[in-house]
Amino acid sequence: MKNLYPLYLKLEAQPVLVIGGGPVAHRRVHRLLECDARVTVVSPDVVPEIESLHRERRLVWTARRFHPDDLAAARLAFLAVGDPALVEVVRREARRRGVFLNTAEEESSCDFHVPAVSDHKGVKLAISTAGASPTLAAALRQQMDVWLSSVGDETLEELRRNRKAGRQHHRRDREERSTGKKGAVKDAMVKKGTVYLVGAGPGDPGLLTMRAWQLLQQAEIVYYDRLIGEEILATIPEMTERVYVGKDLGDANRANIAALMIQAARAGRTVVRLKGGDPILFGRGGEEMLELGQANVDFEIVPGVSALCAVPGAAGIPVTYRGIASELVVRSGHRMAEASGPEGELTRTRNETTFVYFMAVGKIPDVVRELAAEGLSPSTPVAIVEKGTLPEEKVVIGELKNIARKARDEAVEPPALIIAGDVVAFRQPSEFLALLRSTGAIRSSVRSAIDARTV
Fold first, then answer.
1. 225 counts as catalytic
2. Per-position b or e across 105-121, b if 16+ CB within 10 A of its CB
3. I want to staple 307 with a disulfide (CB 3.0 to 4.6 A). Which of 30, 69, 311, 352 is the partner?
4. In a domain, 290, yes or no
5. Which of 247, 298, 366, 409 is catalytic?
6. Whether this model's pTM surpasses 0.70
7. What CATH number should be reported for the domain holding residue 383?
8. Taking 70 as the threshold, does the pLDDT of residue 350 lie above it?
9. For the chain, how many structural domains are there in total?
10. Which range marks the domain in which residue 438 is found?
């Protein structure tokens, strides 16, 4: 049924009628009392739980069969008696009196459905299948219960605080625009904004990470491009400002995204830059990181599910297979245009490859020998990231010639990734900027943002 309208009712002190006294009626009563409704139960007999609530004066039990006048004061009515003849009587009378009715017996007689509800610390999620499959709704509710519990109470409280702060910020902005003046509170204390470079995954909103979803709920402005589909955009609250910053195919014009993010963050706004897949895999995330850092704007990288493995995997193709494929080389199609010579052949001024090794902590000397055989210089930057993204993350930086000793001195343990290549120099911005200048790889947008600063 496509024409259901979802809403949450405030039933505090409102009269609600429950016709029936069995287990289903008790479930209705229980949730109604949680909402502080004034509940009246009409039934010759009731289960002990309802009788106990009547003795405690938490509801009124009228021990008889239904009478049409029982609907006189009701705002809502619930019917659960297992009597088709009575359903028709109550249905006709409820319509005559303008009372919304739900019946457990006949979906076509319902004015509304009772959803499966996941309720955790004030966050309430209601799930409906339009009466078609209560079993499916219950299964989805169980999944939501698990998910809400995994989010954690601290995160839920943070979301509430941020949404409240966001509403106050939007209200203050509207007031300032209407008066043309800045408020005294804003003059006295400037809120410092943060930029989040968020990976949106390969497209399915179910593949958004929890962190990505949380940030989208608390963002004040979201910058996105053509890789972000409508399904992902639909997860962003309506009150959040959305700005399209993509470049359409064949169009040479592109917004200065970093400048927009810097401006918004300096205005004290919480900014999300939503990028397809993972934000730092062929997504200009590194360039945006550099510009934000040079502008002294706080930022955070929020990894996403990368299309690198997700898309082939979803299509039934493993990108590695023991004994068949033990290495993965990844390149961007943009490189073919940017690095091609007169005859269309790819040219290199230096080694452009980044090497990433999984499960190789116990074989670092072998890794060093293999990379040296690939032609890497002994001075090639190397990083080892132990327990990446976790609170106990440790990063060991060295060069190809000394990384084995440094890893031994730092007692590196698995799980860890070994990363070798010039991009590792990004950890030392002054060295990385010098590298960009020396190779001519620095882009005009980055150059304009950093040349005015002393590194």
1. yes
2. beeebbebbbbbebeee
3. 311
4. yes
5. 247
6. no
7. 3.30.950.10
8. no
9. 3
10. 331-450
